[in-house]
Amino acid sequence: MIEKSEPGTSWETFITLLLKRLDIPTKKDIAFLHGRLDKLEQLLYQKQPGLKRTRPTMRRKSASSIVLDVIGKYPKGTNFKTIKTATGFDDKKLRNIIFRLNTIKKIKRVTRGIYKKI
Q: Residue 19 needs a FRET pair 20 to 30 A away by CA distance; which of 3, 50, 96, 104 works?
Protein backbone atom coordinates (compact mmCIF):
# COMPACT_ATOMS: atom_id res chain seq x y z
CA MET A 1 0.00 0.00 0.00
CA ILE A 2 1.33 3.44 -1.00
CA GLU A 3 1.05 6.24 1.45
CA LYS A 4 -0.11 9.62 0.27
CA SER A 5 2.45 12.31 0.76
CA GLU A 6 1.43 15.31 2.73
CA PRO A 7 1.27 18.62 0.88
CA GLY A 8 4.54 20.54 1.13
CA THR A 9 6.77 17.53 1.72
CA SER A 10 7.70 16.62 -1.85
CA TRP A 11 11.21 17.07 -3.18
CA GLU A 12 10.13 19.88 -5.52
CA THR A 13 8.76 21.99 -2.73
CA PHE A 14 11.83 21.26 -0.61
CA ILE A 15 14.17 22.42 -3.41
CA THR A 16 12.14 25.57 -4.17
CA LEU A 17 12.03 26.41 -0.48
CA LEU A 18 15.80 25.94 -0.24
CA LEU A 19 16.40 28.12 -3.32
CA LYS A 20 14.21 30.89 -1.91
CA ARG A 21 15.90 30.84 1.48
CA LEU A 22 19.38 30.97 -0.06
CA ASP A 23 18.34 33.70 -2.52
CA ILE A 24 19.27 31.62 -5.56
CA PRO A 25 17.30 32.57 -8.69
CA THR A 26 15.39 29.87 -10.47
CA LYS A 27 15.18 29.30 -14.21
CA LYS A 28 11.77 30.98 -14.16
CA ASP A 29 13.21 34.07 -12.43
CA ILE A 30 16.02 34.37 -14.96
CA ALA A 31 13.62 34.00 -17.90
CA PHE A 32 11.45 36.75 -16.41
CA LEU A 33 14.48 39.06 -16.08
CA HIS A 34 15.56 38.34 -19.66
CA GLY A 35 12.09 39.30 -20.86
CA ARG A 36 12.23 42.56 -18.93
CA LEU A 37 15.69 43.36 -20.33
CA ASP A 38 14.49 42.68 -23.88
CA LYS A 39 11.61 45.12 -23.39
CA LEU A 40 13.99 47.77 -22.04
CA GLU A 41 16.36 47.33 -24.98
CA GLN A 42 13.48 47.68 -27.42
CA LEU A 43 12.43 50.91 -25.74
CA LEU A 44 15.97 52.26 -25.86
CA TYR A 45 16.44 51.51 -29.54
CA GLN A 46 13.06 52.79 -30.69
CA LYS A 47 13.22 55.87 -32.81
CA GLN A 48 11.88 58.66 -30.68
CA PRO A 49 9.75 61.30 -32.44
CA GLY A 50 11.12 64.80 -32.52
CA LEU A 51 14.75 63.76 -32.20
CA LYS A 52 16.80 63.81 -35.36
CA ARG A 53 19.97 61.86 -35.56
CA THR A 54 22.55 63.59 -37.68
CA ARG A 55 25.81 62.22 -38.86
CA PRO A 56 28.90 64.03 -37.79
CA THR A 57 30.18 66.29 -40.54
CA MET A 58 33.82 65.86 -39.65
CA ARG A 59 35.56 62.69 -40.68
CA ARG A 60 38.45 61.18 -38.83
CA LYS A 61 41.84 61.81 -40.32
CA SER A 62 43.94 58.98 -41.58
CA ALA A 63 47.10 58.09 -39.74
CA SER A 64 49.21 59.26 -42.67
CA SER A 65 47.59 62.70 -42.70
CA ILE A 66 48.12 63.04 -38.94
CA VAL A 67 51.82 62.27 -39.32
CA LEU A 68 52.08 64.61 -42.31
CA ASP A 69 50.48 67.44 -40.29
CA VAL A 70 52.94 66.92 -37.44
CA ILE A 71 55.91 66.94 -39.81
CA GLY A 72 54.47 70.04 -41.52
CA LYS A 73 54.55 71.99 -38.24
CA TYR A 74 58.35 71.91 -38.33
CA PRO A 75 59.66 73.69 -41.47
CA LYS A 76 63.29 72.69 -40.82
CA GLY A 77 62.29 69.08 -40.16
CA THR A 78 61.64 66.96 -37.11
CA ASN A 79 62.91 63.74 -35.64
CA PHE A 80 61.22 60.40 -35.09
CA LYS A 81 60.87 60.86 -31.33
CA THR A 82 58.94 64.14 -31.72
CA ILE A 83 56.58 62.59 -34.26
CA LYS A 84 56.02 59.60 -31.99
CA THR A 85 55.16 61.70 -28.94
CA ALA A 86 52.87 63.99 -30.95
CA THR A 87 50.90 61.17 -32.57
CA GLY A 88 51.06 58.42 -29.96
CA PHE A 89 51.55 55.73 -32.60
CA ASP A 90 53.81 52.77 -31.90
CA ASP A 91 57.19 52.39 -33.61
CA LYS A 92 56.24 49.91 -36.31
CA LYS A 93 53.15 51.81 -37.42
CA LEU A 94 55.02 55.10 -37.49
CA ARG A 95 57.96 53.66 -39.45
CA ASN A 96 55.56 52.21 -42.03
CA ILE A 97 53.76 55.54 -42.40
CA ILE A 98 57.03 57.47 -42.78
CA PHE A 99 58.28 54.96 -45.37
CA ARG A 100 55.02 55.28 -47.31
CA LEU A 101 55.04 59.10 -47.19
CA ASN A 102 58.68 59.12 -48.34
CA THR A 103 57.87 56.74 -51.20
CA ILE A 104 55.02 58.89 -52.52
CA LYS A 105 57.22 62.02 -52.15
CA LYS A 106 55.13 63.79 -49.49
CA ILE A 107 58.09 64.08 -47.12
CA LYS A 108 61.81 64.23 -47.55
CA ARG A 109 64.47 62.60 -45.42
CA VAL A 110 66.90 65.38 -44.49
CA THR A 111 69.29 63.18 -42.53
CA ARG A 112 68.96 59.92 -40.70
CA GLY A 113 65.86 60.21 -38.48
CA ILE A 114 65.02 63.79 -39.54
CA TYR A 115 62.04 64.29 -41.85
CA LYS A 116 60.67 67.38 -43.58
CA LYS A 117 57.46 68.03 -45.50
CA ILE A 118 57.92 68.77 -49.20
A: 3
Query: Could you state, in order of their start, the residue ranges of all structural domains in the chain?
Result: 11-45, 63-117
Residue pLDDT, tens place only, 51-79 = 666 666 667 889 999 999 999 999 999 99
**Run of H or E including 105:** none
Could you give the percent of the chain with pLDDT greater than 70? 83
φ, ψ for residue 12, nearest 5 deg? -60, -45
Written out in words, the top-level CATH class of the domain with range 63-117 is: mainly alpha
| CB-CB contact of 78 with 61 (8 Å) | no
Alpha-carbon dihedral sign for residues 64, 66, 71, 75:
positive
C-alpha distances in Å from residue 88, one per residue of 48, 67, 79, 98, 113: 39, 10, 14, 14, 17
pTM of the model: 0.51
The SS3 assignment for 14 reads: helix
